[in-house]
């Protein structure tokens, strides 16, 4: 209850700060922007932002389509993208400034996003207009590279070598607001990446990435080693993780050791994506004090609640609270896998490759198994209503790092199969309704308690457990 009150007050205060900053208005048209969708307006938009930063104020656009590469919103500036305005991303990767950041869990140089709040304080991106990445050219370049990489055992490298711009990046910044009805479309890579940042509110964004194709790794909102974050009133259709919490990958993530903590995600609908709410797979820095509620997950989303990691990631999850989820036709209600997608998760440089980027070595740095296990514990899940599911549970940890002290209450799942719960310790169910045709497979009677009588079967672990998760972009590359 305390954290909810804090986030409510923080959202009001942040909105007041952003509103008070709008003392003067600067138009990119005054600096030469054409807004015709053809002329590259990057310099003119940036000039307006820089002027607003000197005097404090708002950058507002005349109606039109503004073709742009990377732009950088400065401290004290509100970028106002009103209805009738589209900021359209350039399809030339050279129009995106290369700078230090974190990508998919490791620190490296990477093209900036279309719109960036990079090492700033008190900045906002708001309005009911459109930010359109026009990203298909970047999706296609990724698939071309991956087709050559995968047969060589380099699936893990393709996401890092095929450099693609995110739509919005909030990096090492504080007191930031994004929202107000923004339509975010066709991102070349992740849509909104919040990394190393504090006191960020995302309120009222519509994300539509599955237009003109299904782009790989077009995540919705990624909260990455950041704290005091509020995400609410999001409406998301993407082709990978929709609402995702991250905290670093393997040795590099453990070196940085920054958790994602004090996060509230609420009152949002997921129409398409890999899962409704996801933790991982970048878990190295850990997750602490996270609450997600009021989430609706629809039938084009394979999983409702997803935890994923790997035995080289490390990290932890502590005091995670997920409640009041409605899943309508979502195939898997709850999936927890600690050995996710091995061809991506475990980097090994083939012996015949001697000349490679430095970050390959970072990715392939060995992590001892005792440091690589993620430890999730004290997780509470309640008020879950799932109808039309294929499987209720797909849960698999490791015997030496069991998923510990999970509690479930008021769970109502209608599914064809109960699924399985392996490597769990001190799991407690209360007030559970399972309408299933096949029972839940357990390994013992002692570690999972409270499931309805007759809904479980005890038998040894099968020889093959579905530990590899087929990524959503692999399911549909159309």
UniProtKB/TrEMBL annotation:
Q: Recorded E.C. number(s)?
A: 3.2.1.82
| Xref: SMART domains | PbH1 (SM00710)
Q: Could you say which residues form the signal peptide?
A: 1-23
Q: Where is this region: Disordered?
A: 453-478
Return the InterPro entries for the record. GH28_Enzymes, Glyco_hydro_28, PbH1, Pectin_lyas_fold, Pectin_lyase_fold/virulence
- What does the record give under GO molecular function? exo-poly-alpha-galacturonosidase activity; polygalacturonase activity
Q: Which domain of life is it from?
A: Bacteria
SUPFAM superfamilies registered for this protein in UniProt: Pectin lyase-like (SSF51126)
**Cross-referenced Pfam families:** Glyco_hydro_28
Which terms does the UniProt entry file under GO BP? carbohydrate metabolic process
Could you list this entry's UniProt keywords, alphabetically sorted: Glycosidase, Hydrolase, Signal
Compositionally biased residues, Basic and acidic residues = 466-478
The family this protein is said to belong to: Belongs to the glycosyl hydrolase 28 family.
**This chain belongs to which protein, by name?**
Exo-poly-alpha-D-galacturonosidase
């Amino acid at each position: 209850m305390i954290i909810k009150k804090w986030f409510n007050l923080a959202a009001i205060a942040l909105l007041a700060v952003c509103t008070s900053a709008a003392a003067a208005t600067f138009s990119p048209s005054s600096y030469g922007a054409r807004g015709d969708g053809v002329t590259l307006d990057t310099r003119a938009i940036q000039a307006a932002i820089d002027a607003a930063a000197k005097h404090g104020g708002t950058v507002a656009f005349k109606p039109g389509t503004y073709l742009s590469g990377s732009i950088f919103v400065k401290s004290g500036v509100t970028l106002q993208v009103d209805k009738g305005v589209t900021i359209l991303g350039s399809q030339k990767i050279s129009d995106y400034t290369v700078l230090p950041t974190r990508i998919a869990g490791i620190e490296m140089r990477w093209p900036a996003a279309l719109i960036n709040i990079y090492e700033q304080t008190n900045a906002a991106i708001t309005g009911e207009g459109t930010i359109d990445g026009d990203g298909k050219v970047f999706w296609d370049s990724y698939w071309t590279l991956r087709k050559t990489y995968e047969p060589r055992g380099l699936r893990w490298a393709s996401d890092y070598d095929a450099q693609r711009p995110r739509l919005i990046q909030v990096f090492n910044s504080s007191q930031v607001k994004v929202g107000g009805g923004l339509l975010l479309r066709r991102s070349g890579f992740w849509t909104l990446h919040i990394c190393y940042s504090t006191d960020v509110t995302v309120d009222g964004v519509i994300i539509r990435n599955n237009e003109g194709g299904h782009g790989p790794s077009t995540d919705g909102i990624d909260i990455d080693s950041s704290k005091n974050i509020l995400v609410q009133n999001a409406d998301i259709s993407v082709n990978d993780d929709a609402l995702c919490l991250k905290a670093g990958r393997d040795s590099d993530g453990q070196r940085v050791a920054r958790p994602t903590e004090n996060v509230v995600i609420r009152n949002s609908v997921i129409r398409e994506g890999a899962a409704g709410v996801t933790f991982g797979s970048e878990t190295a820095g850990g997750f602490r004090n996270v609450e997600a509620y009021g989430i609706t997950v629809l039938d084009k989303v394979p999983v409702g609640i997803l935890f994923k990691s790997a035995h080289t990631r490390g990290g932890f999850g502590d005091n995670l609270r997920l409640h009041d989820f409605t899943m309508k036709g979502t195939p898997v209600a709850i999936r927890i896998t600690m050995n996710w997608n091995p061809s991506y998760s475990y980097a090994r440089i083939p012996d015949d490759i001697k000349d490679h980027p430095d970050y390959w070595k970072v990715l392939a740095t060995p992590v001892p198994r005792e440091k690589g296990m993620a430890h999730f514990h004290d997780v509470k899940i309640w008020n879950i209503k799932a109808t039309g599911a294929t499987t209720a549970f797909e849960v698999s940890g490791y015997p030496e790092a069991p998923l510990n002290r999970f509690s479930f209450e008021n769970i109502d799942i209608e599914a064809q199969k109960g699924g399985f719960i392996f490597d769990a310790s001190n799991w407690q169910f209360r007030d559970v309704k399972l309408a299933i045709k096949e029972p839940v497979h357990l390994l013992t009677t002692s570690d999972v308690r409270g499931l309805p009588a007759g809904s479980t079967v005890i038998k040894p672990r099968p020889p093959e457990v579905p530990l590899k998760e087929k990524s959503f972009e692999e399911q549909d590359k159309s």
